[in-house]
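Journal club side-thread
Mid-discussion, someone asked how the predicted structure for our own chain would compare to the paper's figures. Pasting it here so we can look after the session.
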Amino acid sequence: MARVREFDTEAAVEAAMTAFRGRGFEGTSIQDLVDATGVGRGSLYAAFGSKEGLYLAAVDRYREKYALPLIDIFQSGAPVRELVREVLVDLVDDIVNDGNRLACLIVSAATERVPHDRVIAERLRSTVDTLEDALTEVISHAQASGEISSDRPASDLARFFVMTAQGLRVMGAINPDRRSLMTTVEVATACFD
C-alpha cells in the first residue's frame, strides 16, 4: 500500500524556493532544504526524486509567482510607457525593501545551472521567450496606434525591457540603492517614447 504524502507540497516548494534564492543551488544542502521545508529527507526525495527535482519545482514556482503575472500586467491596456515604468519601479521597490537580498531565481539559475543543466536552460528560455513575446505584442499595438515610436522593432524593445529588469536584479543585489536603480528605470522608460 502506497504511503499518503503527509506534507503540503506547495508549501515545501515555496520554502525551497526561498532557500535556493538565498544560497543558490550549490550553496543549498539537502539539510538546508529539510530545515527550510520542515519535511524529512526521505519524504523530499520521495516527492521530488532529488535535489535537482526540488530545484526544478522551485524554478517553476518562481516562474508562476513572479514572471508569468507580468503578462497580465502587460495586457492590462495601460499605455506601454506607463506599464514599463510601473513594472520597473515595482521591481526596484522589491529590491530595496528586501532585507535578505534574495536573488532572482531566474538570474541565479542562468548563471549557476544553465551551463550544465539542459532542462533548466530550456525552462528559463521558455520563460524569457514568453515574457518577450507578450510584451512584443503590446509594443507592436502601441506602435501601430502611434502611442510610441516605431523607430525600433517591438521585439528589440521587449528584449531590452527583459534585460533591463534582470540587470536591475543583479545590480540591486550588489547595491540596493534606490536612487541609483531609479536612474536606470528613467533611462529605460525613455526608450519607450
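Post-session note: The chain has a mean pLDDT of 93.
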